[in-house]
Design brief:
There is one protein chain. By secondary structure, the protein is α+β, with helices and mostly antiparallel strands. The protein has two domains: 117 residues, no CATH class; 45 residues, no CATH class. Helices cover 24% and strands 34% of the residues. It is built from three helices and nine strands; from the N terminus they run H-E-H-E-E-E-E-H-E-E-E-E. The strands form two sheets. The chain has a five-stranded antiparallel sheet, with helices on one face. A four-stranded antiparallel sheet has the order 8-7-6-9, with no helix packed on it.
Length: 181
């Protein structure tokens, strides 16, 4: 079985981007929970002038992102993204499809400026801290059947995702620890 590499990318990277990614990979391989296949890099398509212009307008050169996945059913619970550009990194929970940072920063937001190495170390620490946070799944039942599931951070109660149909105006019937202390 071939193991995926953390933050795989199939084209050469500019030296400063390669240095940033090398630090993320080293830190991820040493201590991050999760699967390398759930980490990604995105850069503007150099053949698409509109794509390059849009990235340049935002001051971004590269996006590194990671999906936090429920190990039981493979469901993506949240996506974290860190945009590098102009000597700074802005990170937050990102939209899982369009990969945008939210208009209003969430409680997960972080920003750092400095040398590439400093930014990469701070970004790696941020990713690791968020990916290690404890998560619970709350379940509302009808009889023995789960009607609604809601995943939350156990430490703050921040809702991550909810599935199913039914009311959640009553306390959950059970709470299951998905990960963390």
């Amino acid at each position: 079985m071939v193991m995926a590499e953390w933050f795989e990318y199939d084209r050469p990277l500019a030296p400063h981007l390669a240095a940033f990614v090398a630090i993320l990979r080293r830190r991820a391989a040493a201590a991050w929970p999760g699967d390398p296949a759930d980490t990604y890099l995105l850069l503007p398509d150099p053949q698409d002038d509109a794509d390059v212009a849009a990235w340049n307008a935002d001051g971004h050169e590269m996006l590194a992102w990671a999906d936090a996945v429920d190990g039981v059913d493979g469901r993506v619970l949240f996506c974290l993204g860190a945009y590098l550009g102009g000597g700074r990194v802005r990170g937050d929970q990102i939209h899982s499809t369009i990969l945008d940072l939210p208009k209003q920063p969430t409680e997960l937001a972080f920003e750092v400026a400095g040398a590439v190495e400093e930014c990469a170390e701070a970004t790696a620490s941020w990713f690791e801290a968020q990916l290690r946070r404890p998560i619970v799944r709350q379940e509302w039942l009808r009889g023995d059947i789960v009607q609604v599931q809601r995943w939350r951070f156990a430490d703050t109660g921040m809702e991550l995702i909810q599935t199913g149909f039914g009311t959640t105006d009553q306390p959950p019937h059970r709470t299951v620890r998905v990960r963390g202390a």
